Amino acid sequence: MRVWRDNWLLFTIVALILCAATILLPQLRLLSASVIGDGGSFSVVHRGSGLEPVPEMSDQFQTETAGKGNALKVTRGSGFALDISRMDRQTLRLAAEQKIGTTMDESGNLSLELGGNSLAVSQQAPRGLFNRTAPDPLTAAQEPDGSVVLKHAANAYLTFNDAGRRLTISNYVDFVTGNETVQATLNSLFISLSATLIAALIGVSLAYVVARFDVMGTNGIVFFATMASVSPPFLGAYSWRLLLGRNGVITNGLGVDFSIVGIHGVIWVIAWLVFPVIFLLSYSAFRGLDASHVEAAESLGANPAKARFSVEIPLAMPGIITGLYLATMAALSDFGTPRIIGLDLNVLPVLIYTSFLSEAGRNPALAATGSVVLVAISSLFLMAQQIYLAKRGFSVVSSRAIDRRPLSTTGQICALGFAGLVLFFAFVPHMTVLVTSFMEWRVGLPRFAFTLSNYTNMLESGLTPAWVTLSLGVAGTAVAFALGLGIAFVLVRKRYAVLAPVLSVTVMMPYVIPGTVLGIGLIMMFNEAPLQLTGTWFILALAYVIRNLPFTVKASEAALRQVHPALDEAAISLGARPLRVFLTVTAPLMLAGAVTGATLTFLHIVTELSSTIVLYRPPWKPMTAVIFENTLVDADFGVSAAQTILLMMIIYVPLYLVVRYGQSRRIENA
C-alpha cells in the first residue's frame, strides 16, 4: 500500500486524525449541544378550587384551561396533545388520542408513555410545619379505554418532564431574544470595534512615522513594541484600575471624581493591549513598499500627502488589515479585561464562562450556543478580511526599498515625543506592577514604603504555579514545534490533493476559536472514559498546543518557501532517504523561521488566560490563573505584582535572546 511506502502520507493521515479529534470533534460537540435539547416539561397544581397550569415551571409545552378550571389541554406543536381532567380533590384523568402506557420502576418513579414520548411524573406536596404525616404517594392505574387515572397527594404540584433528546433551535431563539445575551453580544462587538479603531489610529500612525522617516532609535521602538505585544492580557486592566479607579492612586492624589471602571475603561485598556500587533504588521507593510510606486506618483505631480493616502497606505493595506483582524479577534475574545475592570459589564466570553462553570445558574446549553455565536462572529471577521484582500491586487514585479526621509530637529523631537508617549502608555501597566511589587499593602491599598516582603511571601507560598507554567510552556512548545515542522513540510512540499488542504484548514481553525470556547469544547470531548483528561495537566497542554499550532506551522511554512527544492533533490540523488533528508537538510534550513514560531508559541502559552481559566483544576494551576484570581477578589496586590514580575521575566528573557540572536544572525549573513 502507498501509505506504508510514503512516510509523509502516513504522517499526514495521523496528523489529520489527531487534529480532527482535538479541534473538529470538540467544536462539533459544542454545535450539537446548542441544537439538541431535552423535550421540555410542564407543571400543574391541583387544589380544591380546580386545576391550574404553572407557566414559570413549564418549557416547550403549552397549557390551556377548560371547563372552569376542571380540565387542562396540554400541547406541544402538532404531534402531542394530552387532556387532563379533574375527578376529585386528589384524582386526575389523563386521556389522549393514543393509548397511554404507564411504568413504575423499583424506586417508585412513575413514567407515562404517549406517542413515542416518555414523561417522568413527579409531585411536590406542601406540608405543614408540625405535620408528621407523609403525603399520599403518586400512583397510576390503566383504564380500559387507554386513559390513566392518576392519584396524588392533596394540593400537589405535578411535574411532567420529557427527558428525551431532540433537535431544536430554541437555544438560538432564546439567545437572540434574551436581553442578557443580546446585550452581551452588542457589548462585545462595540468594545472590540471601538478598541481596534483607537489602536489602529495609534498603531498605523506610529508605524508610518517610524517606517518612512529617519527616526532615532527605530530598532528600540520596534523592540519595545514587540515586548508590549506579549504582555499578560489582564495586566493592563488591574494596573489602570489601581491608578484611575474610584480609590486609585492618581484619582485620590488629584482629588478627581472619576473612575476608569466601566465599558470606557475596557475599551481604553484593550486598545493599548492590541495596538502593538497593528503597529508591527503595519510597520512591516510600510517597509516592504516599492519605492518606484511612490516615485511615479510624485513624478506625476502628487504632493507627499496625496501620495501617502493614494499610494502608500493602499499598498500597505494587507499588513494593516491583517493587523486589524488580529486585534479585533484579541479584543473580541478577551476574558480578563472585562472581568476585572468592567464590573457587571456583560460580554460574550464572560457570559459563556459563567453559564458553563458558575455554581449558580449554570446553563451549559446557553454556553454552547454563545460559543457557536462567538465562533461565527470570528469567522465572519475572517471572511471579511479574506474577501477584502482577494478583491484587490497588492503584488509587485520587483521591490526596491524606500529610503527613509530625513527629519529636521523639530521633526525628530515630534517623532520621538509621539513614539515615547505611545510606548509610555503601553508600558504603564508594566511600570505600575514593577513599582507596586516593592510597596507595602494594607487592606488592598498600597503604602509608599519600600519592601521586599512581597517577593519573600511569594517564595514562601511556593513556586508551584511557576513550575506548572514553565512545564506547560516547554512541553507545549516542543510538541507544537515538532508538529509544525512536519505539517509545514507536507503543506509546502507534498501538497496531497485532498489531505493537505483539509489539514491546512483544520490546523488554522483554532486561530478563530476564542480560548473559552476551545476550553469548553475540550471539556465536553474529554470528560468521560476512555480519555478523561478534564482537570489534568494534559488537557492544559493539549489546549495550548492546538491553540498555538498555527504560529509554528505558518512560521515554518514561510521559512520553507525560501528553501529551494533542489537542495532536497541533491541529497536524495546522493542516496539519502527522504526522512534523513528532512532531518539533516530541510529542517536545519527551516530552523530560523521555526524558532520564531516556537517563541511566539511559548510566549502565548505562558500568558494564556481565556482557555486556562476554563480548564485548570488544582494542583495544576498556572501563574496566569493565580494572578487573575487574586486581582479579581481585590486581594493585596503586592504578592500578585511580584508573581507578575516573575511571569514577565519568563516572557521577556527568551524574547530578548531571540531578538538578539536574530539580529546577530542577520549581521553574520550580511
From TrEMBL:
It is found in: Cell inner membrane; Cell membrane. It is a multi-pass membrane protein. It comes from the Bacteria. PROSITE patterns: ABC_TM1 (PS50928). Pfam families: BPD_transp_1 (PF00528). The chain crosses the membrane at residues 189-209, 221-240, 260-283, 315-333, 365-384, 413-439, 466-491, 498-523, 529-546, 581-606, 637-659. The keyword Glycoprotein does not apply. Residues 185-384, 466-658 form the ABC transmembrane type-1 domain. The keyword Cell inner membrane applies. Keywords: Cell inner membrane, Cell membrane, Membrane, Transmembrane, Transmembrane helix, Transport. PANTHER family: FE(3+)-TRANSPORT SYSTEM PERMEASE PROTEIN FBPB 2 (PTHR43357:SF3), INNER MEMBRANE ABC TRANSPORTER PERMEASE PROTEIN YDCV (PTHR43357). Belongs to the binding-protein-dependent transport system permease family. This is Iron ABC transporter permease. It comes from Roseibium litorale.
